[in-house]
Structures are given as C-alpha cells and as structure tokens.
Amino acid sequence: KQEVTQIPAALSVPEGENLVLNCSFTDSAIYNLQWFRQDPGKGLTSLLLIQSSQREQTSGRLNASLDKSSGRSTLYIAASQPGDSATYLCAVNAGGTSYGKLTFGQGTILTVHP
Amino acid sequence: SAVISQKPSRDICQRGTSLTIQCQVDSQVTMMFWYRQQPGQSLTLIATANQGSEATYESGFVIDKFPISRPNLTFSTLTVSNMSPEDSSIYLCSVDGRAPEQFFGPGTRLTVL
C-alpha cells in the first residue's frame, strides 16, 4: 500500500526566503506526482505535475523535482511571498488499474511573514 | 483545465439526516472521484464514479453510507447518509479532464451537529 509522507509538517519563514518542501513515497511504481496548494477551507489548486519519466518541472517561482528510484520529490519555492502562505500537498498517482486514484501526503503548512 | 463546481459550498446538518452534494464539470470526463478531508487531515479517496456503471468504493467506505450517482459525463452526486458528527469534513470531487493532470472542485464543507 502506497504511503506518502511530507516533511516538514509546518514551516514559517520571512518573506524573500527560498524554501524546500519534501515529499516521500514508499512505492516507486508511480505514474505521476502532483503538487497542490490548498488555502484554508478551500479546494485544491494544481501547481505542478511530474510524469514518472521526468526529473523536474518549473512554473514561475516553483520548481518540482522527482527522484522516482529513491521515492522522493521536492518543491522549491523561490523568493517566498506572504501570498504563498497555504498548505502544500503532494499526491501520487499509481496509474494502471488505479489510474486517477491519488494518494496524498499530510501536507506542509507554510506561513510566510512580511 | 477543467472547471468544476460543487453545491452546496457548505452546510450545517442535524445528525441522522442525509445530504446530497453535487459536482458539475464544464466538459465531458470519463472518471470522477470523491474525496473526504476530515478536520486537520489530508484527503482520502471515497470512491470512483464512472458513467453507466456502479461506483467503486475504497476500503472503509460503503455504498449504503455514501451512495453515488453518475447520470452523465459532466455530473455526479455524493450522498452522505444518516450523518453523525464524525462525518463533518470537506468533501471534494475531482476529475481527470485532460489527463494526466487532475483537477479538484472547491469542496463542500459539511458540519454535522
């Protein structure tokens, strides 16, 4: 059974800092990995998706990497802003007969203070 | 990207009653998924809803408690039956509108008293 762990559980940083969020998964047989952002009481916003054959994806100040063999992904946020404050979730899609069924980590609560 | 709407956005219900949550997508999709997010927890998949067939439930979730309908390729409903305070959660639907990325609705925040 796939298990997804995110470290740290919470992170508080001053504005402008570069930061790294970590995600690990136990079964390396994944189809893709997706990073989401969730604002309090809201739904999920997709940030980046990395296919199993890819090493990284970039969107603006966000960069996500994937090391499938070691079961790890990182989300790098450059020059953090207070508007980045949210919960960040990573989710693994196993594919195959389980395609579309995402297994989520517990999330990292990020607070960026001015 | 797929645009997903959910109704209601939030509700407060009495124990023992049922609530039906609607999920509408702006394009035809093959699979729709229902997730639950209990307070302070991450998301857990309840079931997969395919048009024209019975929903497939994950371990720990049963049809009598969470009946699902999927009448067409753009719409699904999830009913939370005989509710108890433990059912207080955010319920979210998702779709694989343009594979492989998945998109989520805004969620329905349910409080059971």
What does this structure look like?
The complex is a heterodimer of chains A (114) and B (113). Chain A is mainly beta and 114 residues long. Helices cover 0% and strands 61% of the residues of chain A. Chain A is built from no helices and eleven strands. Chain A has strands at residues 4-7, 10-14, 19-25, 32-38, 44-51, 56-59, 62-67, 72-77, 86-95, 98-104, 108-113. The model of chain A has no long low-confidence stretch (mean pLDDT 93). With 113 residues, chain B is mainly beta. Helix content of chain B is 0%, strand content 55%. Chain B is built from no helices and eleven strands. Chain B has strands spanning 4-7, 10-13, 19-25, 31-37, 43-50, 56-57, 68-72, 75-80, 89-98, 101-104, 108-112. In chain B, strands 2, 4, 5, 6, 9, 10 and 11 form a seven-stranded mixed β-sheet that branches. Chain B has a four-stranded antiparallel β-sheet with strand order 1-3-8-7, with no helix packed on it. Chain B is globular, with a radius of gyration of 13 Å. The model of chain B has no long low-confidence stretch (mean pLDDT 93). The chains are: A mainly beta (114), B mainly beta (113). Chain A binds chain B through residues 31-32, 34, 36, 41-46, 49, 51, 89, 91, 93, 99-107, and chain B through 1, 6, 31, 33, 41-45, 48, 58, 90, 92, 94, 96, 100-107, 109.
Structural class from helices and strands of chain B? mainly beta
Q: What proportion strand of chain A?
A: over 45%
Helix content of chain B: under 10%
- Report the span from N to C terminus of chain A: 41 Å
Shape of chain B: globular
**Total count of strands of chain B:** 11
Percent helix of chain A, as a range, is under 10%
Radius of gyration of chain A: 14 Å
Are there runs of chain B of 5+ residues with pLDDT below 50, and where? none
Main sheet of chain A? Answer: 6 strands, mixed
Order of helices and strands of chain A: EEEEEEEEEEE
Oligomer: heterodimer
Class from helix and strand fractions of chain A = mainly beta
Average predicted confidence as pLDDT of chain B: 93
Distinct helical segment count of chain B: 0
The helix-strand sequence of chain B is EEEEEEEEEEE
pLDDT averaged over residues of chain A: 93
